[in-house]
Amino acid sequence: MVARSWATTPGRLSIIAGGLVVLILLTGAVAAATTMSKSDTTTDLVEIHEPTAADVQRLYRVLSDADAAAASSLLVAGDEPIEMRERYEDDIALAGPTLGLAALDRSGDPRVTEQIEIVGRQVPTYAGLVETARANGRQELPIGGAYLREASHLMRTEILPAAERLYRIQVERVADERDSAVSFPYTATALAVILFVALLMAQVQIRRLSKRRLNIGLIVATGAIGLAVAWSAVAMTAHSDLVNEGHEHGSAQVNLLADTRITALQARADELLTLVARGSGGAYEEEFVKLSRTITGEVGDGGTLREARGMTEDAELSAHLDKAIGAAERWLTTHGEIREADDGGQYEEAVELAVDRRRVGSSAQEFAALDDSLSAAIASARQHFVDETVGGGRALTLLTTGWVLLALVAVAGVVGGIRQRLREYR
Question: What is the mean pLDDT of residues 373-383?
Answer without folding.
Answer: 92
